[in-house]
User: What shape does this take?
Amino acid sequence: MHTPVFVLGSRSPARLRILQAAGVQPLVRVSDVDEDAVLAALPAGTDPADAVTALARAKAEAIAALPDVAALAGHVAAPAGADAPRPVVVIGCDSMLSLDGALLGKPHTAERALAQWQSMRGGQATLLTGHHLIRLDTAPPRTAAGASGTTIRFADVPDTVIERYVATGEPLQVAGAFTLDGLGGWLIDGIDGDPSSVIGIGLPLVRSLVERVGLQIADFWTG
Assistant: This one.
């Protein structure tokens, strides 16, 4: 069997670090999915977990359609006696914070990050991460999807600390305006759930999705 390929459809360095630390060296590709358009197309009242999973699916499908990614699996309909095509999986992920019934993504601006932290401090919210996996070397491609939710308990920090955190720029480009594995970790009192999913990609869920498409996560370990 050819060496399996794991394609990460994300530019997130945190997701890449998690996979590398867990023995998987992925091929990284980035989609140009319009996240706002995907969310706007969802029916009113869509469950937040379904919303982040829909975003993850859009990203995974966009990456799977790239010519160089599709070519990795070779010819699915191989002639008799030929080597089987290499296993190739693509995963898309998306994270958002569910706070008081609202879904919050990346704040992008210091003003939004500051206001969000002032509303979060001393309370708790649920960080949702949607995952969508596509196995390309089967006909038709096999898919599996799911979402993980982790409760985040935020420290009751003063405005001066929030302002200094926002000034670092770290919370502007991350879902929920915080990190668990960076400066934001100082401002988290605790979590209930999977820490890897908070950072961006849930290892337990990914393992389950890989199994659901007929493979084992150990197939992708690189020593």
